[in-house]
Prior knowledge:
This protein is an alpha/beta fold. It has a single domain (5-171), classed as Collagenase (Catalytic Domain). It is 31% helix and 19% strand. It has five helices and eight strands; from the N terminus they run βαβββαββββααα. It has helices at 17-30, 61-71, 122-140, 158-163, 170-175, and strands spanning 5-11, 36-40, 52-53, 58-60, 76-82, 86-87, 96-98, 104-107. The strands form two sheets. A five-stranded mixed β-sheet has the order 2-1-5-8-7, sandwiched between helices. It has a three-stranded mixed β-sheet with strand order 3-4-6. Strand 1, helix 1 (17-30) and strand 2 (36-40) form a beta-alpha-beta unit. The longest helix is centred in the C-terminal third of the chain and has 19 residues, at 122-140. The chain is globular and about 40 Å long. Bound molecules: zinc ion (2 copies).
Amino acid sequence: MANTKEILLIGFGDLAKEVLCQLSHDIQENLPIRRSRVNVKQENLEIPSSAFDSSRQQYSTNAFLSMLHDQSYKKKHALGVVAKDLFVPSLNFVFGVAQRGGSAVISTVRLEPQFYGKSPDKEPFRVRLLKEAIHELGHVFGLSHCDNFCVMRFSNSLPETDAKPPTFCQDCQSKIID
Length: 178
Ligand SMILES: [Zn+2]
Ligand SMILES: [Zn+2]
């Protein structure tokens, strides 16, 4: 029998608790894994100062992932949420990154209309955050990128994020180790 998958949502810095609580609820509603439980860590973690790259004015994902790794253990996966722009060396930015079987971190920055000079809009932001969270959790649970109409589509721009659904295609769904 499959074990319960525990997901621990962890905010970094001054990330609002209401964003985490709403995301926790939305993941629980939308993640198609029968035995999953999502909790929110009470205290946010501090943004690791070593993550900041002054030449890029962005934050490297590595320091976040190693902090999250310390919060995870067998069958428990930490998903960090940070309101800073994240990068990995090979890309100009990332919405998030994940370690297969481990933890993941996502950024809210480029999901907000304000980043693109538009007015704040809560509902699209909420859906985008859910999509990025489910996408990275898909990687955590062993999925690769997918070309179907599927949340596991690679997206490197907001229109690409908006164009994909918050759900797995049937192929991906069947590959998740439940
Ligand atoms: Zn991905
Ligand atoms: Zn798929």
